[in-house]
Amino acid sequence: MRALFAVGLTIALSACAISVNTDPQPAQLKSSRSVTPAERALLEKQVADAERAFARTMADRDLAAFERFLSLETVWKSGPDGENKPLRGPKAVVGYWKRYFETPTAPFSWEPASVHVTDAADLAISAGPVYDASGKRFATYTSIWRQESPGIWKVLFDWGSPWVEPSKR
Q1: Which residues contact 162 (CB under 8 A, 6 or more apart)?
Q2: Which domains are assigned to the chain?
Q3: Residue 167's pLDDT is what?
Q4: Which residues of the chain have pLDDT under 70?
């Protein structure tokens, strides 16, 4: 009985010793350095170039190259039959998006209009227009990129939304 009491007391005291971090800033964010304006410009160019190369995979009809731009943790707002259920992971995204690579010509294209990199230089956002095959704008995309190794950016999140001409809003 005493042994059982000692074990229970040990567990209870251990639970009391656990500290809870109530600081809203995670430790890794506090210690991250801020990029200089020149570094930021270089990183934003890297992401814009990656976005253009990613878009070129659609024009080139190269699904394997398309997949290489996806982070292993990628989440996409594209889903079966327009349900917009998030697709998780490259295999799910490629499984759904392969339909867009099956025709001889690309059904749409996109290009970055703006790119911004975080102060920690590990994440970036790119956004821009999406055009149908005739060149008419029909959507806007937003992608979150993660720098997975120096100079290597992969799509972590991708979201698209319909575009409405400003005069019709």
Answers
A1: 138, 139, 140
A2: 35-164 (3.10.450.50)
A3: 77
A4: 1-32, 79-84, 169
Using CA of residue 49, residue 144, residue 82, residue 66, what is the dihedral sign? Answer: positive
3-state secondary structure 38-96: HHHHHHHHHHHHHHHHHHHHHHCCCHHHHHHCEEEEEEEECCHHHCCCEEECHHHHHHH
Residue in 53, 77, 57, 56 with CA at minimum distance from that of residue 66: 57
Overall residue count recorded for the chain in this entry? 169
Owner of token pair 């690579």: 101
Q: Which two tokens stand for residue 156?
A: 């972590």
The model's pTM: 0.78
pLDDT tens digits along 28-39? 544 457 899 999
Smallest CA-to-CA distance from 73 within 144, 126, 161 is with 144
Parallel, antiparallel, or unpaired: how do β-strands 108-110 and 86-88 relate? unpaired
